[in-house]
Queue: 3 jobs
Job 1
Amino acid sequence: MILNSLLCCTYILIGSFSSLVTFIGITEYTSYLATMVGLIYLRYTQPDLNRPYKPPIWTPVLFIIICSVMVLRGMIFALAQTGILVVYVFLVSLYYKYSWKGRRRVRI
């Protein structure tokens, strides 16, 4: 959260609000894409989970296609924001790798 706040403040201080909007858009659609991929993964690896709502398979697949186009378009036209996002994801993954290293895994 601190890194995200620093990035937002940096973009605001630079005066490039469109860069901030582009960065947030790429980040949000990447998160949505990962969520839908996880939904499809869980649907096929754990089909017996209790789900209050189970959408037809074409809905998340269509959403994945649309999110992929949005993320790729952002990556092509905004290389600086994409580079920052890649560094951000790398730092967050390192944080989770080393902060969860000594913890015991809980099975549900």
Job 2
Amino acid sequence: MLALFARQFVLRERKAMDGEWFTRLTSNDFLGAFGNPTRVEASIGKLYQEEGLATAFEWMDNNLIPLFRKQVAAKR
């Protein structure tokens, strides 16, 4: 679920596949900012099972992406 979201996000933002962005967005280091990385992924999977793909993607967009954008901006 996370990998599919990350690929779509990277393609939308970068207009091409960017392996560095994909890796950073799906890494345990990044997910650790939200708690145990395995639990974060499990909660996304549970949300998908209970409420569907759109809701899971919306949660990731609202929760993961703001921090990711902040980290990308700080790296520049």
Job 3
Amino acid sequence: MTGPGGRRRLVPAYLATAGSATATRNTVDRMTVLTAEPLPLPVGLEPAAHRILEKLRPGALTLVEVAAYLQLPPSITRVIVSELVDRGLVRAHASMLNPQEATRAQKIDILERTLRGLRKI
């Protein structure tokens, strides 16, 4: 994975998981909506976990949005988020939209919200 400006990261992304290779939860996917619990930030968190909690403080984001903000692969973000859910620091909610059941208006709404989020980055 490359960092900003197309340069390679000095530290491989998998080190952000503090050695964990797999997620502890199979219910967390790319479109899982995440919210931070209103608790004080614990001390001793890994930097990536700390950044995830900071990103979730203002409101809900999907896992893939968090990954984009942190410039980490979604698979790595999933491992970190799973550990935060296990610790009770983050809540994972089912994705907001099932594409097979969504109406045209719902699909347009989610695309517009996604576009607004991407423009903020």
